[in-house]
Amino acid sequence: MLELPILGFLAEQPLHGYELKERIKALSGHVRPVSDGALYPAITRLVTAGHLDEHAAPGTGAAPRRVLSLTDSGRAALLGRLREPKDIEITDHTRFNTLLAFLRLLPDPAEQAAVLRRRLDFLQAPASFFYDEQGRPVRAEEPEDLFRRGMLRVARATGTAERAWLREALTELGAGPNPPTDQPSSDRT
Does pLDDT of 21 surpass 50? Predict the structure, then answer.
């Protein structure tokens, strides 16, 4: 999960590890905290793979800082990740937002539109949050449970807004939206 934001932020400018961590934290917020124990091994893997370059630069204090920059290989890896995101990066809301944060780096509007189309198709597929005793999905229109009712209402409102934005974005990219079938066919956000 960390590789995409690492590559994306370093495509914008070289950064030292602490700056990179702060940008990733600002992007994912409290939803997905970033620990040094996850970030620095991910950086090391990307350096080892030749996607990042690191060099020492004078620090604001006495110790030099480790500055990271994207290599040509890293830029190619980033563009590949943006062109063909993993399914989890389309279906998971937080991961999709991370993808959106860097999708502008993909130079071809048709490729950008293809990613947005995948998300829209996912959001338009019927889904259910709840299951019966046999594990079969149950469509809950307005459950009696106050909290599930709230969860569904928020999810539907969020999903409606996101589908509307995706259609606008596809139109702006020249890809045209799917027909405006924003009937509550899904309980998915």
Answer: yes
